[in-house]
Amino acid sequence: MKKLFIVLTGLICMTGCTEKQASLKKINQVDFSNVRITDQFWSPRLDRHTSVTLPVCIDQIENQTGRIRNFENAAKGEGEHSGIFFDDSDVYKAVEGMAYSLINHPDAALEAKTDEWIEKFAAAQQPDGYINTFYTLTGLDKRWSNMDKHEMYCAGHMIEAAIAYYQATGKRKMLDVCIRMVDHMMNTFGPGKRDWVPGHEEIELALVKLYQVTNEEKYLDFAHWLLEERGHGHGSMGTEGTWHPEYYQDVIPVRDLQKISGHAVRCMYLYCGMADVAALKQDTGYIAALHRLWDDVVLRNMYITGGIGSSAHNEGFTTDYDLPNLEAYCETCASVGMVLWNHRMNQLTGDSKYVDVLEKALYNGALAGISLKGDLFFYVNPLESKGNHHRQAWYGCACCPSQISRFLPSIGNYIYGTSDDALWVNLYIGNKADVKLGKKAMKVSMESQVPWEGNVKLTIDELASTVKKEIRMRIPEWCEKYTLAINGETIDQPTLDKGYAVLARPWKKGDVITLNIEMPAVLKQADPRVKQDVGKRAVQRGPLVYCMEETDNPTDFDQLTLSTKSNLDSQFDATLLDGVVKITAKEENKEINFIPYYAWDNREAGKMKVWIDYQE
Length: 616
Ligand SMILES: [Zn+2]
Known about the structure:
Layout: H1 2-15, E1 28-29, E2 35-37, H2 42-64, H3 67-76, H4 88-104, H5 108-124, H6 133-138, H7 151-169, H8 173-188, H9 203-214, H10 217-229, H11 264-281, H12 284-300, H13 332-349, H14 353-366, E3 384-385, H15 399-407, E4 416-418, E5 422-425, E6 431-437, E7 440-448, E8 454-463, E9 467-474, E10 482-486, E11 489-490, E12 495-497, E13 500-507, E14 512-517, E15 521-524, E16 536-541, E17 544-549, E18 562-563, E19 567-573, E20 580-587, E21 590-596, E22 608-609, E23 612-615
Parallel strand pairs: 5-9, 18-23
Antiparallel strand pairs: 1-4, 2-6, 3-22, 4-5, 6-7, 7-8, 8-14, 9-13, 10-11, 10-14, 12-13, 15-16, 16-17, 16-23, 17-21, 17-22, 19-20, 20-21
Helix pairs in contact: 2-4, 3-5, 4-7, 4-15, 7-8, 7-9, 9-10, 9-11, 10-11, 11-12, 11-13, 13-14
C-alpha cells in the first residue's frame, strides 16, 4: 500500500506542475470555503450582505452607474466610457463578494448573475489579452502610458475575484480571462522588457494568489519583479502620476522602507504583497522592512478604531502622532487593508499581536463602513462628528462599498490557521469548520458570545483517531482575566506563547475547550504624544470601541465629561441598534450613554465623539 502511494505521488509530481515554493509562513490559511459562519453577531450581518448589500451593489453597477455598460461597450468596441478610469475594479470586487457569499448562502440566481457578468468581461478582453474598459473605450494607443491609471490595480482585483469564484464554484472562465491578461502584462513588462511601477498596488498580492492556484512560478516571479521596480525612478519616466513619488511608495526600494507614507490603502496592499512574496521567496529583507513599518503604523499612526490615514488631502499619512478626530480620514478600505496585512503578519510570525490589530480594525474601523441595514456606506470614518457626516448609498469613487461587499463575507478567512504542530484559533466567531490538526482532518464547531460576552466553546466534532498536537487559543490583548478549561477541567496556568494559550495533549473526538474572557468596560488613554487626545479618554469593552451620540445624550452634549469617579455600567439592550451592549458612565447625578462605534449614524443625525474630555 505504501509503495503504491509513493508511485502515485511520483506520477502526480511528474505530470503536475512544479513543486510549490516552501513558505516562511509559520501558519497556513484556512480559507473561507472551509468555514461556515454560525454566529449570533456575524450571521445576521452576512444574511443582510446577501439580501441587501449585494443587491445594492448589483443595482449600482448595472442600473445606477455605467459600470457594466462599460464592459458591454468595450466588447462592441464602440460607445462611451462612463465614470472613473478604475471603475472596473468595483465590478470585480462585487464579484469577489458574490463568490464568498455563495459559500454561506448558495444561490442559483446570484451565481447566474455572476456568470452573466463574467461573459461580459470575457467579451471585453482584447485579442492580446488586455482588459480595461477605460482605455479600450478612450484609446488603446494610450494604454500603459501612465502609472496612475490603475490598469494593474484593476487586473489585480479581477484576479482576486476570479480565484474566489473558482474556489466557490469550480468555474474557471474568469480565471482564464485573468491568465490571458497576466500573460499580456508579462509579455510587455519584465526583465529585459519595459519597466513599470503600478501607481496603486494590488496586482502583487493578486499575482501571488494566482501562483498559488495555478502553481505557475512565473506569476510569483512577476510579483517579486514588480515590487523590486519601486524606488528606482521608473514610475516617473514618462509615466508620471500627478503626485509626489512618496504618495505611490516609489521613493526608495521597498526593502529599505522605514516609515509609512503616502496613500494609506496603497501602503496596505503593498505590504500585503511584500509579505506574500517574502514568505515564498524567503526574502528576509522584506520581512525586516515589514516589522519596521508595522511599528511605525501601529505605535505612531493608528487610531483606537484600527483606522489609518488621518489626512483627506492625500488619503493617507501626515506626521507621527497626528491623529485628528473630527477631520480623521480613516478610509474604510484602509481598515480592511489593516485586516489583510495583519493577517499575513500573524501567519509569518505566529504572534497574536497582529490579530489584536486585525480584530480592532475588523470590529471598529471596517465594520463602521456599512449601515446596520447593509444599504449605506462610509468612505471616511472620523472619530468625531458635528452631525453632518452620514453614510451614503454609493460614491462616485466607490472603492469602499465594493470593498465592504467583498470583505464581510470573507471573515471566515481570519478565524483559524494551521501548522504542522497546531491549530491556531484567532477570532471568536461562531462557526463550523473543516480544519487540520497536524496532517489529520478534523471538524470543529465554535460557539461564541463575542463581542457581547467572552464565552467561547470549541468542540472537536470529528477526528478519526487521537492526535497529539497543540490547539492554540488566542488570548486577546484587551483581556485581563480569563478561565480556560478542557472537558470541564480548568487549566490553571496554561503555557502562553506570543499571546496564545498553548494546549498540548492527545486530542480526540468530543473534546471541548471552553474559554471565558472577562469583558469589563474600561477607559483608554491615548499616547500622550497625540495632542488631539490629551486630557481625554475613550470607552472600550472587549474588542469594541464605543462612542457617544447626541441622540442618547441630548442635553449638554459638548459639556459632558468623564472623570475618575465615572462608573461604567454595561447592559445588553436587545431593542437598541439590532441589539448591543450599551455602556452608561454614571457619576453622582449625571450619565453618559455610549454605543459601539460601528453602530453610529444609524438613527437620527447628531453629534458623535469617541474621545471624551476627562477630569483627573
Ligand atoms: Zn475605499
